[in-house]
UniProtKB/TrEMBL annotation:
GO terms for molecular function: deaminase activity. This is 2-iminobutanoate/2-iminopropanoate deaminase. PROSITE patterns: UPF0076. One of its GO terms (cellular component) is cytosol. It comes from Paracidovorax wautersii.
Length: 152
C-alpha cells in the first residue's frame, strides 16, 4: 500500500466515524418571548453550527414593550444585557457562552458607567469586545449591544 493510499484510507475511516449529530446543519432562527420582538426584517438570533449570532438589543422592556430611552445609561445597559441573556437562554446558553460583543454608544462619556454594569454580567473570562460611539441608534437610545456566542 502506498503512502497516499494509506492516508486516503485513514481519512475515509475517520469520516465514517463522525456521528451524524456533528454534521453541518442549516442555520436556524432562535427567538425568545422574554426578549423584545424584532422591530424590523431581522431575527433575534441565528444559530449556525455551534455559533449563535445575536442581533443588537436595545433597551426595550419585553413585557410592556416600553422603550427606556430616557433612563440612565446604567438602566439601559442592564436591560439590554438582560434581553441578550433571554435570547441566549432560548438556545440553552448563558452569558458565559458569549465570545464577542459589539457595544454601540450614543456618548462615550458614559463608557465608565456602562462598563461597570457590563462587567457584572461577565465576572470571569469576559468576551472580546469592540465599543464605538455612533451618531444615532435606533429609537434614539443610548446603547445597543450585539453578541456572538459559541456552544461547545
Amino acid at each position: 500500500m502506498t503512502r497516499y493510499s494509506a492516508l486516503a484510507l485513514i481519512a475515509f475511516c475517520a469520516a465514517a466515524l463522525v456521528p451524524a449529530a456533528h454534521a453541518q446543519q442549516a442555520p436556524r432562527v432562535v427567538s425568545s418571548a422574554d426578549a423584545p420582538k424584532a422591530i424590523g426584517p431581522y431575527s433575534q438570533a441565528i444559530r449556525a453550527g455551534q455559533v449563535l449570532y445575536l442581533s443588537g438589543q436595545i433597551p426595550i422592556d419585553p413585557k410592556s414593550g416600553e422603550l427606556m430611552k430616557d433612563a440612565p445609561i446604567e438602566a439601559q445597559t442592564k436591560l439590554v444585557l438582560d434581553n441578550l441573556k433571554a435570547v441566549l437562554a432560548a438556545d440553552g446558553m448563558t452569558m458565559a457562552n458569549i465570545v464577542s460583543t459589539t457595544v454601540y454608544m450614543k456618548d462615550l462619556n458614559d463608557f465608565a458607567k456602562m462598563n461597570e454594569v457590563y462587567g457584572g454580567y461577565f465576572p470571569a473570562n469576559p468576551p472580546a469586545r469592540a465599543t464605538v460611539q455612533v451618531a444615532r441608534l435606533p429609537r434614539d437610545v443610548a446603547v445597543e449591544i450585539g453578541a456572538i456566542a459559541v456552544k461547545p
